[in-house]
Amino acid sequence: MDKSEYIAEVKKRLVWIFKASKESYKIPDMERHRLEGFMYAGVFLRLATQAEMRTLLENTHVAVFGETVEDRKKGKSATWPDIAFNYDQYDSPTVLRSSK
């Protein structure tokens, strides 16, 4: 396997995982770990550098989602705002809270 074939295979796997995520399909952890290991193996075998893998991941993410990984993380945190609830009323037993 040469470098171009390796990069193409990593990109194909990234697209598959990102598209599944975009469609709200839960990819098994094993598949994500397998891809991560595949990427590290390419770095170890000097088919690519870590910087090339990071750039490929970012570019593929933008191609699939239309935004960077960081922008998507920010958007997700905005979806579920931290709302502070006051649970003091539940400190007493239910029998005592009953208004009847």
Overview of the structural elements:
With 100 residues, the protein is an all-alpha fold. The protein has one domain (3-79). Helix content is 67%, strand content 0%. The protein contains 5 helices and no strands. It has helices at 3-22, 29-44, 50-65, 69-79, 94-97. α1 (3-22) packs antiparallel against α2.
Helix content: 55-70%
Assess the beta-strand content as a share of residues.
Answer: under 5%
Which spans have pLDDT < 50 for at least 5 consecutive residues? none
- Element string (H = helix, E = strand): HHHHH
Please tell me the total number of domains: 1
Radius of gyration: 22 Å
Largest sheet report: none
The separation of the N and C termini measures: 76 Å
Number of helices: 5
Shape: elongated
Tally of strands: 0
Average pLDDT taken over every residue? 85
Alpha-beta classification: mainly alpha
Entry summary:
With 100 residues, this protein is an all-alpha fold. The protein has helices at residues 3-22, 29-44, 50-65, 69-79, 94-97.
Secondary structure layout plus pairing:
Blueprint: H1 3-22, H2 29-44, H3 50-65, H4 69-79, H5 94-97
Helix pairs in contact: 1-2, 1-3
